Amino acid sequence: MNIFKRKKSSQQGCIVVIGSGVEALSQALLLQAQSQKLALYQVRHSQQDNTLQFEALDQLTDVKANLIDSKAVAHLFKKIKQAGHVVELVVFQPAPPLEMASTDLTSEDMQQRWQHTGLSAINIAQHAIKPMLPRQRGKFIILGSMHASAPDSGWLADGAVHAGNRALLQSLAREFQPQGIQCCYVTLSGWSTENRQTAQAIAQTCWHIYQQPRSAWSQELSV
Fold first, then answer.
1. Would residue 93 count as lying in a domain?
2. Which strand ranges, in their side-by-side order, compose the sheet holding 12-19?
3. Residue 170: helix, strand or coil by DSSP?
4. Beta carbons of 196 and 24 less than 8 angstroms apart
5. Burial class (CB in 10 A: 0-12, 13-18, 19+), 73
């Protein structure tokens, strides 16, 4: 596609909204991206195959990628770089929590939850932060659950997975904040980002993090 034939001299900053059900959040961040002349990638999880599928829409680039495949995620960020875009902000939205008693979950259920939440987060963090390091600039956000720090009956299995993501963000912040990369965990009290008002609130929080000066960096916020 011609979006990958831009010259390096025309590099433009970009936002990558990546994960499951990210359409509403992408639209909510679109105005902020346009105001700062940032390109916007909407990356949706798809396990149909490991081939990236790009579609240039009117105001953003829609991508389908297998986020539990490390090679596919690496290829995604390579393609973004080839398009002449520099990643300024990455927002990862994992699959929404599933309200089921732990005793009702099968091993296959737990494996799927881990893949779509924890494994995806690890893959994305690894390949999103790496290109930020030479510039010593970038923001990486994971959206999480309030049950990561306050487990509740019916959410224990997902709470454990999200607690892992929260711990991952804390480790990333300690390692990469001195190198100019802000890593922040955003705790959600509700999860339906398909709701426009909820998506707008999350987008505003992410944008607030993006605009934070280094002296005031947050490592965790709640919405």
1. yes
2. 53-56, 61-65, 39-45, 12-19, 85-93, 138-145, 181-188, 220-222
3. helix
4. yes
5. buried
- Band the pLDDT of 7: cuts 50, 70, 90: very low
What is the number of domains present in the chain? 1
Query: Residue 55 contacts by C-beta under 8 Å, 6 or more apart in sequence?
Result: 61, 62, 63
**What domain range is 79 assigned to?**
12-99+109-171
Categorize the per-residue pLDDT at 62 as very low, low, confident or very high, splitting at 50, 70 and 90: very high
Is 73 part of any domain? yes
Identify whether 204 is part of a domain. no
CB atoms within 10 A of CB 45: 20
State whether residue 90 is helix, strand or coil: strand
Measured distance CA(2)–CA(29) in Å, rounded? 25
Please write the tens of the pLDDT for every residue from 94-118: 987 666 666 777 888 788 888 989 9
Q: Does residue 123 fall inside a structural domain? A: yes
- The pLDDT score that the predictor gives to residue 192 is 57
For the residues 19-47, what does the mean pLDDT come to? 94
- Say which CATH number the domain at 66 has: 3.40.50.720
